[in-house]
């Protein structure tokens, strides 16, 4: 179902090339790309931008090492030992 070659009904091919090139060079998030590109592409909406990026396979930014904190495991205690001690 659907078209064999997906294309935009809102954006021209030149506008799509401009969007894809801008995203690949700047690696900005979706909303930042939208605000930067709206002056040059007046009919650009958030949804049309997202659909364009999704079509070209760059809707998600690449993972950068050190971007997220390292997950640590909780200290292991034997069953039955209370971590909290109440004052006497």
What topology emerges from the helices and strands here?
Layout: H1 13-26, H2 30-37, H3 46-55
Short description:
By secondary structure, the protein is an all-alpha fold. 36% of the residues lie in helices and 0% in strands.
Overview of this structure, please?
The chain has 88 residues and is mainly alpha-helical. It has a domain at 13-55. Helix content is 36%, strand content 0%. It has 3 helices and no strands. The protein has helices spanning 13-26, 30-37, 46-55. The longest helix is centred in the first third of the chain and has 14 residues, at 13-26. The chain is elongated, with a radius of gyration of 24 Å. The termini are far apart.
Strand content: under 5%
Major beta sheet summary = none
What series of H and E elements makes up the topology?
HHH
Radius of gyration from the CA trace?
Answer: 24 Å
Average pLDDT rating:
83
